């Protein structure tokens, strides 16, 4: 286990360095400037700002200075919100995005897994057809379309929930539903496929032949194996939910990481955009590592040498 974690940590460092380098090159060669606005700055002030952000230095020097800051977990200073460092902005915005993402993932995993198991257990019935039709619809519709429909329905036609903002449970329900809906649909289809495959195995037929109830066969014998494909999907899904919140946070005016990332792109705030890209990279890599480690717990046939 220790060797596995050390190997994954080494790959994490390499991955972060590659992503940082590519992002840095793209960001520093993109058109525009963070100091461009409707009112032009006096040349002396702009020169001071460029000196403050090391923009007056050659590109290799700037890259080396930024890389050294990253090595000590210093993401720099926002070029638009000059009173805050990127680290401070991430600390302020991250709890909001985490709460939204966890709520979306929780309901998507529970509802999707339940729908997939029920659909597989009642294969060919009206329940199976109805659940899989809803899953197909959830996959086909982007979350911003779902968000627009839900805002019209639950905020204007039936005014039950607020259309935007943050600060209470009512502000969380609608964005979490819209963000998690496509993932619940994917999980339902994956769980159904996995459950159908497991239910055809010999040991399931043996369990039924011993007289076990249908519920015991599904929950105790089929579920642990059938859930493995779902766990494999959850790693990228976590990162997808967090990065997918870019649109949802903008639609519902939620002050999270996604909203800040969109705003940093619009404002050409390079330090903020690069800091969030690095954060997403670490998050995706960490979740994939946890998923790989979970295989050893879910399937006794998988050892640490296999992951």
Automatic annotation (TrEMBL):
GO terms for biological process: transmembrane transport. Belongs to the binding-protein-dependent transport system permease family. Keywords: Cell membrane, Membrane, Transmembrane, Transmembrane helix, Transport. The chain crosses the membrane at residues 9-27, 98-121, 133-160, 172-191, 237-262, 274-298. InterPro entries: MetI-like (IPR000515), MetI-like_sf (IPR035906). This is Dipeptide transport system permease protein DppB. GO terms for cellular component: plasma membrane. PROSITE patterns: ABC_TM1. Its main location: membrane. It is a multi-pass membrane protein. Residues 94-291 form the ABC transmembrane type-1 domain. The gene is dppB_2. It is found in: Cell membrane.
